[in-house]
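Next comes the chain:
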Amino acid sequence: MRVTYRREMKLKAEMDALGVQAFVPMRRIIQHGSRLKNSLEPAIHNLIFIYASQERVQELKKTRPELQYMMRSMGGRREKIIVPQRQMDDFMKVCTTSPDFVEIVPAENMQFKPGQEVIVVSGPLQGVRGFFQRIEGHRARRLIVSIPGACSATIEIKAEEVIPIS
């Protein structure tokens, strides 16, 4: 979902207090302007993932006007983006394994074509499904886990840690 005015962390805290599962992809910031700073901040501002029933989300939207659905065009009509559980689990695992090495790419900045679909067979990302390919600006191949219409998380991974899915 989209959150207006960079309120994603405030809204996540509210969701936690209400017992609603929410996830905000984070990235590590080492330098901010001319000051050295070591902190985590949202990787994509105004983006939050909420795990709740349709009815519960509607209730939340009534009391929080800053919360908006993310939409995508499908077959000539616009529909809400709903992420399958397995895909969200893989995305969260990639994002939280090592925020120092994960790159979050907004959907509008995606400039690569899907490569070989793989599953990770060893290491901290074992069991994660995604695509394995080289991305412009990176020397090594990376694992890409996408949330279509929202964003993708990419992380460098060794070829021996993945096997192709046929």
About this structure: The radius of gyration is 17 Å.
